[in-house]
Request: fold
Amino acid sequence: MRRQLPVWLGFIAGMLVIIARYFAFPGFTQVQKTLDNWAMYSGAAAFLMGMINLTIVHKTNIQRRRENWGASLVLLIAMFGYFIYGLFTGPDDKLFVSIFNATISPLGSAMFSLLAFYMLSAAYRAFRMKTLEATILLAAGLIGILGNAPIGAAISPWIPSARNWMTEILNTAAMRAVTIGTALGAYAAMVRILLGIERSYLGGRGD
Amino acid sequence: MKFFEKLDSLDVRWLYLLLAIVVTIPFFKPFGLPIQVDNMTRQAFDTIESAPPGSYVFLSFDFLPSTLTENGTQAAIVARHCFQRNLKVLVGSAESNNEGVQLAQSIIEPIAKEMNKEYGVDWVNLGFKVGGGLYVRSMIEDIIKANADQDFTGKKLSEMPIMQGIKSLKECEILASFTSLGGALNDFVAYLYSEYGNKVIAGITGGMITQYIVYLQSGQYKGILGGLTGAAQYEFLLGKPGKAIQGMDSQSAAHALFFVFVVLGNIGFYLKSKKRS
Reply:
């Protein structure tokens, strides 16, 4: 029963949404809207669950003086401090916005920009013409790199044209196949979940 | 040969330093390389340009601060164009990204002030709501209800003049998502373009172009701004050079450095293999 009930609930909810989407019967449409709302409320509740979970994990770290427990303390102070401050002041408060702009924004940008340094190092050390395939890949990569910035056109108008041709013709052919394949795979996964063949979402082993 | 052997054993930190220098120099001494506009950006520009004044546009901020340089500059120039065309701008995050709506406020507010656009009349920030695709679907029913009649700061949406002319998201002429994730674009195509024929514009990071260009060719998108390059091309088309055009010289310099080091690495590799054989 513990396994059968969620599978049946999933099947009924899934079928209702599918029928409402493809056939637009008035009654089903209303049920779909209600289910949509429930899913949105569940999503909102998940944020609270996440916060509770984080608090439990890091509280335990601090209580047991685990390695880097100081970082856990900083996390909890930052999380609850920002949360409580935001609750009282609202999202347009100057200090609330400043904290976000002065911490989250630059830290996020810095983490992402590090990629450029690693990519340069990796491209220099690993991008080698070892085989014919690697040589073709290298040539395509170099045309892509130069063609995606004004320097490509400054060197030769042929470079951006070649880059556009690769992106719009060669890439598109492959990407369409990948996209359609992924969609069919997702469809198959949906059918497996609806029919209760795939049950890993219930938290078990999927058997 | 010795040069290449030395280069091969070069401490990687020298490479990092060189890249940092190369990227920084153009900010002080711009090269002024000409900007070439590609078809993707031109289509996006023409779509906004052809929207009737007074029509509604939904700008979805679905990116994190990590891609602010790319998506933020795209959103800023598209918002400027919308205001210039006297379009009504609804701002939010169809992908339920709380950082996105915070960034949206910081990006749009100064542009709106500069262009004398009034909050609640010419534009509004709908704020963060959970649900992603479900949120989009509920906005197709009723934007105000889907947002619990509250904007970003908790003010009543139903009392704002901008909301008097629109009930459903399907009444938006154009929907644009500036994204490093992509989910909202799929929702716009599935729920709005397919059913109601709304125009969708994608503001995506440079690395996403190869994946999303298929939707432009199929006509499901009416334009793509790809990475910082796309934003720079849009700034060029609008005749308003900004951060993106400024960043193009840095991008050119960095890409040229990549090119040089890949070529040098391969020459060294070739000479080494020849010596070995």
About this structure: Chain A has seven helices and no strands.
